[in-house]
Write a structure and sequence with these properties.
Layout lengths: L4 E3 L6 H6 L4 E4 L2 E8 L11 H18 L7 E8 L2 H15 L7 E6 L8 E8 L4 E5 L15 E5 L3 E7 L13 H18 L7 E9 L3 H15 L5 E7 L9 E8 L2
Parallel strand pairs: 4-5, 10-11
Antiparallel strand pairs: 1-2, 2-3, 3-6, 4-6, 7-8, 8-9, 9-12, 10-12
């Protein structure tokens, strides 16, 4: 079994020393990058938001380069925002500069209450260039490519498929159910469509991550109900996270999934 290896960019930030973590860890054919923020060399936040986002991407690119990767090698991307409604315009502008054309990485955006003094953070998983990655946007799932992202990224070798966070959206539909249970049902239907596209089953699900806005035990139960029907007697790992906001104000639940291909 290959050993994990810590990776740091050339100009190692004080932040890593101060809090005792690695910029990234290389394991096998994958590079797992810690959340990157718009920090200046001393680790303090950049006050201007657009500059902070650009600096976060610059820190991300430096860390990827230290691991022998580029933005094109990203298979899974998660962004965290302290005020999604106000910040998304700037984020999208910078993101389109960094990912100007298909194939796009899959992505999940999460609204949060606290980022240690920062307003934006981005974390990724990348494949080492000796491996390969393919992108998929199945027609049975809503049009994510028009926003510059992919629903599914498959990393080879290892045969792992990383899914973007799925929400209550279907092809050709703009409105979403007002109730959380109804939204969870549609999001889970997209997960089922992805499994079909990958010729996989619930037994092949490795990990589920469920984000619920203003979560309580009751709302988590509503979100997980449709998932129980999908997974049946399979027992994938699952993480449930309460968040401030998601992609749009009306979205109440988002679900990520990792699948190993048969």
């Amino acid at each position: 079994m290959p050993k994990s290896e810590a990776v740091f960019p050339a100009n190692r930030q004080d932040l890593y020393e101060k809090y005792g973590y690695s910029a990234a860890v290389r394991s096998g054919d994958l590079l797992f990058v810690s959340g990157q923020v718009g920090s200046r060399p001393d680790g303090s936040p950049e006050p201007d938001f657009e500059t902070q986002v650009r600096l976060a991407f610059a820190n991300l690119e430096a860390t990827l380069a230290a691991g022998g990767c580029t933005l094109a090698d990203i298979v899974d991307l998660t962004s965290f925002h302290t005020d999604p409604e106000k910040q998304f315009g700037v984020y999208r502008t910078v993101k389109r500069e960094k990912f100007p054309k298909a194939p796009y990485p899959n992505a999940t955006a999460v609204g949060v209450n606290w980022l240690a003094g920062f307003d934006f953070e981005i974390k990724v998983i990348a494949r080492i260039p000796s491996a390969s990655v393919s992108r998929r946007n199945p027609p049975a799932m809503w049009d994510m490519a028009s926003l510059g992202w992919s629903h599914i990224s498959v990393a080879e070798p290892g045969r792992l498929a990383f899914l973007s966070g799925q929400i209550a959206s279907t092809p050709g539909s703009e409105g979403v159910p007002e109730d959380l249970a109804g939204q969870a049902k549609l999001a889970t239907a997209s997960l089922a469509a992805a499994l079909k596209e990958l010729k996989a089953s619930a037994q092949d699900i490795v990990m589920l991550r469920v984000y619920v806005v203003n979560a309580t035990m009751e709302t988590f139960g509503q979100a997980i109900g449709p998932l129980r029907e999908l997974v049946g007697d399979a027992m994938p790992s699952i993480t449930t996270i309460g968040v401030q906001a998601l992609y749009k104000p009306e979205i109440k639940v988002e679900i990520e999934m990792v699948v190993r291909l048969p």
